[in-house]
Amino acid sequence: MAEPGGILQWDELDTASFNSHAPNASISKRSADELLDLWQGMCVKSGLKFDWISELASIFTAHGLALLDSSRLPISNDLRKASTDDWLSGLEDIGYVVTSRGGIANPLGTLKEFRELFNKMVKETQQGVSISMDMIVVVGRKEV
Length: 144
Fold this sequence. Notes:
Layout: E1 7-21, H1 30-45, H2 51-54, H3 56-62, E2 65-73, H4 80-100, H5 111-126, E3 130-142
Antiparallel strand pairs: 1-3, 2-3
Helix pairs in contact: 1-5, 4-5
């Protein structure tokens, strides 16, 4: 931990804010929304909890850090395409791993179902749909 007077900055993607964005109302983002809902459901079923991320500022103060700054930063428009491509790569890899395990309660469906939904989502992104998460940035100082 930081020495007295030391500063700690924590940046964390707020997984609970994972969402899709269409450039206008005429572009469908149905498949992106469906896949992100399945993703969030898989996280819940796996016991992953992300509520602490939005509480990071209060966690800092609860542990004796003086809060210097706390911000929620949505993705900038300049980074939407690159961020979406990055998230697609990760979702594809994780999706294939999860669906290949099989099992009765596979939250992403079968490999075939996942692949079909994922490919529909990719087509939506080719029409300008993006996916992103907000970044939480908290800065605190350890009291002297």
